[in-house]
Design the sequence.
């Protein structure tokens, strides 16, 4: 079962399988010209093209299941009645008719085969998509079974393929390759979805979605890959990518900020729609906003197309000019337009026109002219990159065209360049001497002007295979010595750091460098280059890992003093038992002798997540289901080693996605172990799940690091503020209060990060960083940081929800208070009315004389008692 997906290799295999060989038109024309033909009404090319087109169209009709046999016969009759066929029939040449008949049959068969292979390829992609996107086992198996049956029925029903078993075998191989490609596309979509989600989750202070990064990992995708990316993103995070980006991008307070926000959102929207040229044009515009001079614009364009060489520069420039014309600026863009775009100079206009017309030589000439007008350091470096890695013939052509355009010699540009190394490089580039140009590139590479030249010139991978490397190297070193009076290696030792010098000197000596040498160089000096170590070991098989270990032990040895200590009967056991000294002496001197062991050296040099990853890589790529599952379980237990991780999800989908993929993998393995049989599609499903597990592991780890860092900042700041406040209240001095606050911040940081990251929090650099930040917390109380975090929280969705809840709570409390006040007032009114009624009754009983009415006006209005009580009751209600 293959375990590595190489998209380029699979696509190359598919394109090679689709190629067909056929007779050329010249061969058929030669065969037809042997016949004595009358003055033709149609040329031989017309006849060949007409019959070839007929065969291709007929093949399309045959390959379409919806087309009936009667439709094909009608198409044949229509072609037979055409003037060209009538003309061929009038020639009455049986050999010519036989050749044309063979041409039609071959062309039709070839077209049918190509159509069949194309459909097979599409069918393979559909099967892979079903395997990758349908989680329910019964539904997935049913969908795959239907697709396979559809392909088999089409194969059996095709009359051209029924007698071609070789083609059927080729189609089956092609379908499996297409399935591999589809699985790789789905895994890439999962990885891109995790990256997109992580990038749009940056809502803390000074962390915003970076449109440049989103553009980088979306711009190289095909429309089908983008569609799959959107589908998988919705499946993973239950939301559209654009909705996620819009909610994560701040709206801005000014019109300028809102206009830039619209342009940034337009970049991703255009990419998701499949309009790569439009997205690239907007991205170029955003990069050029800070460019104040035309040379900075050319520099930006040059760097952009060097970074993305697969883009169609002509189409991008055309879209750029169309979108940002001076007379058709949109209202929200008008204020963003810089002066160089509103009224470009003639040189810049000519540069744009040359790029649009795909005239690379002329575009390079105008770029040379614009960059040389302002001889700054950045422009000089851009000039060096412009002429670097070009052959002498191309440089001579540029020199010729430059003279035709400007009337100046390219050598005159050197007068405007201040840096002597760049001036020498430019002169040697257009001199026509290849050896002189190589020496100048080396000299500039020594002083950091063109660092890539050092590896490129001496690497065997860039040289012809039949070259004698030792003679080639000695010739260059001798020429360098004669020209500059210095040794190249001595110059390199003075200018480069230890690791750079070690790599380049090894390449110069041997023309290449082994993995063991690179690993040793990454471990030398202060600190360890962990990322490069992982790149070197990633994806190696068990056999390759064993070769690297043997090569490392053969090349590097312990010193005699350390071996004497290790072999001593008393000092050896003491050194191996001491926590620090045990890493300096060999563990098993009797078995390994004085050879260094790669695994022991990496354990000593590395820590944290990088150490775990490298130790797992040293086990090699698994070769069966059981080994894959054991590796997945090891990663899963490691990622959940933090105290909080098994119990809390921290409001993120990453933990759930990781757990889901691991559970599905274990379930699949249990079914396989029970049944013992697994078809090819199910094996693909298992491989997809294993790769998906590692994608989810990486996403979850990045989420943990992000969460631990920012949570530690907030908790550390609060701890410092709280402890300092309590210390001041207790009457401590400022110095003791600061020390107590720093101690509380350090302890809370360490405990919180350990609770989140678990075994991953063992790096000395990270612990030291948290120690220093804790001291800063104690000294400054970090009130500003805490305020910033809370300010950002209040601006976000959660903050708005909290504010709305507080407002609703306040309004509800106010309503309840008003209701209580109203009830109290009503009770008071009822009490006063009851007293009034009581007083009224007593008054009426005492004042029996009608000539003395009561003093209350109510009694004056109503003379009768019944009317009085009725009115009082209505007033009370």
Sequence:
């Amino acid at each position: 079962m293959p375990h590595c997906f190489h998209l380029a290799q699979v696509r190359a295999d598919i394109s090679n399988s689709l190629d067909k060989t056929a007779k050329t038109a010249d061969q058929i024309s030669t065969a037809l010209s042997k016949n004595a033909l009358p003055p033709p009404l149609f040329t031989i090319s017309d006849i060949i093209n007409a019959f070839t087109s007929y065969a291709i169209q007929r093949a399309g009709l045959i390959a379409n299941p919806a087309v009936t046999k009667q439709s094909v016969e009608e198409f044949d009759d229509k072609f037979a009645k055409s003037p060209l066929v009538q003309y061929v029939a009038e020639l009455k040449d049986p050999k010519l008719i036989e050749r044309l008949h063979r041409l039609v049959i071959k062309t039709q068969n070839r077209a049918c085969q190509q159509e069949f292979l194309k459909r097979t390829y599409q069918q393979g992609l559909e099967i892979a998509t079903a395997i990758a996107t349908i989680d329910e086992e019964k539904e997935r198996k049913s969908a795959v079974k239907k697709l396979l049956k559809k392909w088999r029925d089409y194969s059996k029903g095709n009359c051209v393929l029924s007698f071609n078993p070789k083609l059927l075998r080729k189609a089956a191989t092609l379908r499996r390759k297409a399935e591999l490609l589809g699985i790789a596309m789905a895994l890439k979509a999962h990885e891109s979805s995790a990256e997109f989600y992580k990038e749009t989750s940056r809502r803390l202070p000074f962390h915003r979605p970076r449109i440049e990064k989103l553009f980088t990992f979306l711009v190289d995708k095909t429309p089908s890959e983008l569609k799959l990316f959107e589908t998988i993103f919705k499946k993973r995070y239950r939301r559209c990518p654009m909705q996620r980006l819009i909610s994560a991008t701040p709206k801005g307070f000014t019109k300028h900020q809102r206009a830039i926000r619209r342009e940034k959102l337009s970049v991703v929207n255009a990419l998701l729609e499949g309009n790569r040229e439009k997205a690239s044009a907007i991205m170029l515009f955003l990069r050029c906003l800070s460019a104040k001079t035309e040379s900075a614009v050319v520099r930006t364009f040059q760097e952009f197309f060097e970074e993305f060489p697969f883009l169609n520069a002509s189409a991008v420039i055309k879209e750029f000019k169309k979108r940002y014309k001076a007379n058709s600026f949109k209202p929200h863009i008008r204020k963003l337009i810089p002066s160089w775009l509103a009224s470009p100079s003639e040189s810049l206009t000519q540069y744009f026109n040359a790029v649009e017309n795909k005239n690379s030589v002329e575009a390079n000439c105008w770029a040379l002219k614009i960059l040389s007008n302002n001889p700054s350091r950045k422009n000089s470096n851009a000039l060096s990159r412009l002429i670097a890695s070009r052959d002498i013939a191309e440089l001579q052509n540029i020199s010729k065209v430059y003279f035709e355009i400007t009337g100046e010699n390219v050598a005159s540009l050197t007068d405007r360049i201040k840096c002597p190394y760049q001036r020498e490089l430019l002169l040697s580039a257009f001199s026509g001497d290849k050896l002189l140009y190589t020496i100048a590139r080396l000299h500039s590479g020594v002083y950091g002007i063109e660092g890539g030249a050092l590896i490129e010139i001496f690497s065997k991978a860039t040289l012809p295979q039949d070259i004698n490397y030792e003679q080639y190297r000695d010739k260059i070193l001798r020429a360098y010595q004669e020209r500059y009076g210095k040794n190249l290696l001595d110059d390199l030792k003075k200018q480069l750091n230890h690791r750079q010098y070690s790599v380049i000197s090894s390449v110069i000596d041997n023309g290449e460098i082994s993995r063991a040498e690179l690993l040793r160089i990454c471990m030398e000096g202060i600190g360890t280059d962990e990322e490069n170590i992982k790149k070197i070991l990633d994806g190696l098989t068990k056999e390759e890992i064993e070769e690297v270990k043997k090569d490392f032990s053969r090349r590097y040895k312990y010193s005699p003093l350390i071996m004497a200590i290790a072999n001593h009967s008393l000092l050896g056991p003491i050194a191996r038992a001491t926590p620090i000294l045990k890493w300096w002496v060999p563990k098993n001197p009797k078995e390994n002798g004085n050879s260094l062991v790669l695994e022991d050296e990496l354990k000593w040099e590395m820590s944290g997540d990088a150490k775990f990853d490298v130790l797992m890589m040293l086990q090699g790529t698994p070769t069966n289901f059981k080994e894959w599952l054991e590796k997945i379980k090891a990663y899963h237990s490691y990622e959940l080693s933090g105290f909080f991780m098994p119990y809390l999800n921290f409001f993120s989908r990453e933990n759930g996605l990781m757990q889901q993929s691991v559970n599905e993998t274990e379930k699949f393995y249990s079914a396989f172990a029970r049944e013992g049989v697994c078809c090819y599609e199910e094996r693909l499903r298992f491989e997809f799940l294993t790769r998906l597990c590692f994608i989810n592991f990486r996403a979850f780890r990045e989420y943990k690091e992000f969460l631990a860092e920012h949570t530690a900042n907030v908790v550390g700041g609060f701890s410092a503020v709280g402890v300092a406040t309590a210390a001041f209240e207790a009457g401590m001095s400022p110095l003791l209060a600061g020390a107590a606050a720093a101690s509380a911040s350090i302890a809370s940081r360490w405990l919180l990060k350990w609770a989140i990251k678990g075994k991953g929090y063992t790096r000395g650099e990270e612990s030291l960083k948290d120690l220093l930040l804790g001291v800063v917390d104690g000294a400054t109380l970090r009130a500003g940081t805490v305020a910033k975090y809370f300010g950002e929280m209040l601006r976000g969705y959660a903050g708005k929800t909290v504010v709305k809840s507080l407002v609703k709570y306040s309004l509800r409390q106010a309503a309840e208070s008003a209701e209580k006040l109203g009830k109290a007032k009503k009770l008071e009114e009822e009490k006063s009315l009851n007293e009034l009624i009581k007083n009224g009754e007593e008054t009426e009983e005492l004042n029996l004389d009608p000539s003395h009415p009561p003093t209350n006006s109510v009694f004056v209005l109503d003379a009768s008692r019944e009317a009085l009580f009725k009115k009082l009751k209505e007033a009370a209600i």
Notes: The first helix runs from residue 7 to 18.
